[in-house]
Automatic annotation (TrEMBL):
Domain of life: Bacteria
Name listed for the protein in its UniProt record: YCII-related domain-containing protein
Pfam families on file: YCII
InterPro entries: Dimeric_a/b-barrel (IPR011008), YCII (IPR005545)
Amino acid sequence: MWLVQLGIKKSMDQIDPTWFEQHNNRNQQLREKGVIAANGPFADGSGGCIVYNCSKEEFVSIIESDPLVVNGVVDYEYKEWNAAF
């Protein structure tokens, strides 16, 4: 599994709301496929986390094509995570 932390790097007035809509719709599809085990925003609005259950290559491809990454809204850091649920 991969734990990805996204950090917002633009102010809200610089962000097209459709980018968040596209991001959320895409994440919903990935949750339904079992690729995303969990995701959600931080309570303070500074970003969020996503837990991917897939290969490193697959999650890097997914995150690099995320509308929020493509449009420079967020940056991200990731770690391989040996999660226990």
